[in-house]
Amino acid sequence: MDNSFYNAVMRVLDDRRSANRRENARRRAEISAKIPEFDEVDHEISSLSVKTAKKIILMKDEEAKREEADLEKKINLLSAKKISLLKANGYPENYLSPVHTCPYCDDTGYVDGKKCVCMKQISAKLLMNDKRVKAMPEDATFDRFRLDFYADTPVLNEFGTEKIPRDLARDGLLKAKDFVAGFETDKDGRSFFIHGSTGTGKTFLAGCIANALINNGYSVAFVTAFNFFDTLEKYAFKKKDSDEVDSTLSDFFLDCDLLVLDDLGTELTNSFTASRLFTYMNERITQKKSTIISSNLNLKQIRDTYGERILSRIMGSYEAISLIGRDIRRQL
Ligand SMILES: Nc1ncnc2c1ncn2[C@@H]1O[C@H](COP(=O)(O)OP(=O)(O)OP(=O)(O)O)[C@@H](O)[C@H]1O
Ligand SMILES: [Mg+2]
Question: Domain limits of the chain?
Fold first, then answer.
């Protein structure tokens, strides 16, 4: 992680720790106000400790040890008394234990020297504000998805078969809604290939899914193919104009709950694009994470542009949604 991004993540953790410390202090004050006896016991513990500390300075080792053991016993009894006071007044016994937002790392961000899951969640939240991964139309929501833009009379699709655009759109919409509804429970990570000619609502439909999942609290990267490859390329070759969050974004493309790669085929292709695309698609399939690819390209063009391996991933692991018909931009 680059420094300034890392600092932003750490600031969030810092804020959490401060808020939790304030909550601890508030609880302590509440207990003082409600259970005066609790404070007396607390006071007794500290004065006992101070007294013993003073006493043992002048003692021989063995004698001091006995005294310390005796103190420990007394403190244990008094601590037990504090717990019973809490319970007797209707509080859970850990009411005054340090409050932590993350049970795994106690809000330090690390577990055994490794980044905690909470740190990844914080990074995801911050990254999702980067406009490059927020490329979805804001107004794309399922309730605004209109079927009447799609003709209900048959037209020829790319294979020369007659299809009714509205049926295909309805089918795509149902799949999309079903995908969102089952996102929590579906552990297989369904992926979709949305294809069709220009202006048939591919970006809009992918946007409906993305916005719905974001509203449900999931991390989503909605990126145009151009920005996707541009980010990866800058990061891979550490170009001078490489943005400081490029490396974190590249990880986010792998880690996010849903990756939408919009308009595949409009980027500048080079030897790098196909191999990167394959790595990301494959890795996400292996991790059972969902990916949506939208494209004007048909399967033959996909193969010609990106090769057999990518075609076979799309055919094997992606469900197809095809949108056909008149350009909706001309109907608006
Ligand atoms: N089903 C729909 N209901 C309402 N508005 C739609 C629908 N589909 C598309 N639109 C609107 O039509 C316009 C074109 O849609 P969109 O950008 O999704 O097409 P596209 O298939 O992604 O086109 P391109 O291939 O050029 O990227 C947008 O303004 C979008 O808001
Ligand atoms: Mg589009």
Answer: 3-115, 128-330
